[in-house]
């Protein structure tokens, strides 16, 4: 096997739109055996940018919104490869999204550098019952000159718990525990992930807490459109351009000059 061409890798990395896309490419390039992650999915070509099958592509609707807060996704080994992963949507909407593959044995130097960067104020987002009580907070500290950096685990619940317990370099940061009231209010509107908060929902709640309200709304609406089209693709039903989710996302794009259209 030939040694990887680093120059080509770098050029490729710059071509890709965001951190999760780059992590996906790295995962594809460096894994010898990949699990099947698309069982039950349509066996049709997907759009490389939004990962939906081409007839259901939502790229014309995508928008990124500049935010004060940043997001740091700590992703399970194959999470970036899953067509249903919603960390991808976070990276679509929030330009300052960082993504790293979690490993118990190897911590990416770039992750440690990010955590030490004085421009950021990292906070780990996780249920408070699993953390030492003195670390648990329910609000974002507002420190002048430092932007909130939400560290989210992106993977199954079991994987997230393991990563939380076995990442000692995160132990020095507070743990933001979202309250039951915030979660239940949110869940009333949700059906796709009825029993489990997905990563983009958690990120939207965090952005709202940090005052990035418009980005939070765009992210919510983006998930709604993605979920709708994803399910329709599985059921071989055409996308609905007049559907509630799409109309809401289009309205949010229209009414915010800061929202940069990706299309
Ligand atoms: Zn697309």
How far the N terminus sits from the C terminus, by CA atoms, comes to 38 Å
Class by alpha and beta content: alpha/beta
Give the distinct bound molecules.
zinc ion
Q: Summarize the helix and strand pattern as letters.
A: HHEEHEHEEEHEHHHHE
Specify the number of helices. 9
> What's the pLDDT, averaged over the residues?
84
Order of strands across the widest beta sheet? 3-2-6-4-7-5
The share of residues in extended strands comes to 5-15%
What spatial form do the alpha-carbon principal axes imply?
A: globular
State the low-pLDDT regions, or none: 1-13, 187-195
How can the largest sheet be summarized? 6 strands, parallel
Radius of gyration from the alpha-carbon trace, in angstroms: 18 Å
Number of strands: 8
Approximate helicity band: 25-40%
Summarize the structure.
The protein has nine helices and eight strands.
What does this structure look like?
Helices cover 37% and strands 13% of the residues. It has helices at residues 6-15, 19-30, 87-93, 109-116, 157-165, 180-187, 199-209, 213-234, 244-254, and strands spanning 63-64, 70-75, 97-101, 120-125, 136-137, 147-154, 175-176, 260-261. The strands form 2 sheets. It has a 6-stranded parallel beta sheet with strand order 3-2-6-4-7-5, with helices on both faces. The protein has a two-stranded antiparallel sheet with strand order 1-8. Helix 3 (87-93) links the parallel strand 2 and strand 3 (97-101). The chain is globular, with a radius of gyration of 18 Å. Zinc ion binds at residues 47, 49-50, 52, 57-59. Residues 47, 49-50, 52, 57-59 line the site of zinc ion.
């Amino acid at each position: 096997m030939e040694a990887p061409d680093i120059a080509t890798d770098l050029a490729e990395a710059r071509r890709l739109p965001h951190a999760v896309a780059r992590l996906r490419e790295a995962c594809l390039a460096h894994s010898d055996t990949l699990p099947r992650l698309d069982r039950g999915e349509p066996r049709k070509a997907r759009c490389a940018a939004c990962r939906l099958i081409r007839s259901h592509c939502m790229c014309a609707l995508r928008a990124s919104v500049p935010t004060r807060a940043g997001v740091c996704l700590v992703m399970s080994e194959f999470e970036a490869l899953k067509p249903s992963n919603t960390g991808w949507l976070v990276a679509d909407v929030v330009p300052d999204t960082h993504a790293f593959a979690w490993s118990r044995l190897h911590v990416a130097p770039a992750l440690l550098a990010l955590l030490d960067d004085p421009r950021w104020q990292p906070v780990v987002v996780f249920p408070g019952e699993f953390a030492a009580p003195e670390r648990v907070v329910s609000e974002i500290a507002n420190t002048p000159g430092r932007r909130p950096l939400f560290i989210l685990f992106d993977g199954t619940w079991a994987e997230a718990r393991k990563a939380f317990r076995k990442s000692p370099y995160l132990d020095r940061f507070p743990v933001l525990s979202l309250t039951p009231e915030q979660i239940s209010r949110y869940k009333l509107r949700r059906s796709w992930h009825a029993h489990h908060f997905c990563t983009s929902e958690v990120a939207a709640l965090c952005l709202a807490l940090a005052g990035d309200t418009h980005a939070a709304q765009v992210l919510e609406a983006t998930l709604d459109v993605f979920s709708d089209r994803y399910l329709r693709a599985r059921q071989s039903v055409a996308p609905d351009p007049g559907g509630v989710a799409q109309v809401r996302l289009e309205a949010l794009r229209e009414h915010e000059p800061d929202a940069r259209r990706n299309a």
